[in-house]
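Hi C.,

You asked whether I'd gotten around to modeling the 100-residue construct. I have! Everything is below, sequence then structure, no commentary in between.
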Amino acid sequence: MGVWQLGLYKNVSDWTASQAAPFTSAALTFRYDQSRVKSHQTLTLYRHTGTEWVKVGGAPVTPDHCIATTVPLTYLSGADANIGWFTLAARDSGTVIMVQ
């Protein structure tokens, strides 16, 4: 549904690892486009750690069309985006029955 790159920088015109501002932890809330999801879908929020995608949030579709991280996010050292890359995925929930 979406991909975001977020970082906190000392100099807003130089988005590089050398200008990344340190922080202890961050909690984020993303607003998503409600026209891209159905009310029965489940949303999952992932963060890229530099080596892998890690689930940092998940929830059903909500009336306010927002999803928040469920864990405090730590500083990513050595990355241009010290908060990280994020992606939001939507999937249908339900039951799968297989009959043979």
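If it helps when you're writing up: The radius of gyration is 16 Å.

Thanks,
B.
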